[in-house]
Write a structure and sequence with these properties.
- The protein is 38% helix and 24% strand.
- The strands form two sheets. It has a five-stranded mixed β-sheet.
- Helix 1 packs parallel to helix 2.
- It is globular.
- The two termini are 20 Å apart.
């Protein structure tokens, strides 16, 4: 499965409908590979299709945030509403990963 595309210096990650311990290893591997092989210094996680995320999904976001921050980059979320917004709020992720204000 390919969930990632690059647009200039932005790596756009189109998250699947469910983000749990089954999907996160593959997603993390794809994102890390794209970061190493590309020129992106920003990641935008697009939640448009996502309906479920467990703690491993939160870990995916936090892990990529730490990686990109170490490289001097930034991480954002996009299309976050309802239940997903509540998960990001309760997990504390919204305190250090901002909402992307542009269009992708």
């Amino acid at each position: 499965m390919k969930f990632i595309r690059q647009d200039g210096d932005i790596l756009i990650v189109m998250l699947p409908e469910e983000i749990d311990h089954h999907q996160t290893p593959e997603l993390a591997e794809q994102i890390d590979e794209a970061l190493l092989n590309g020129t992106a210094d920003k990641i935008v996680f697009d939640f448009a299709k996502t309906r479920f995320m467990d703690s491993s999904g939160v870990g995916l976001l936090v892990g990529r945030y730490r990686k990109v921050q170490g490289l001097g980059g930034q991480v954002f979320v996009y299309n976050v509403t309802g239940h997903m917004a509540k998960i990001l709020q309760l997990s504390g992720v919204e305190k250090f990963i901002g909402k992307y204000e542009g269009t992708i």
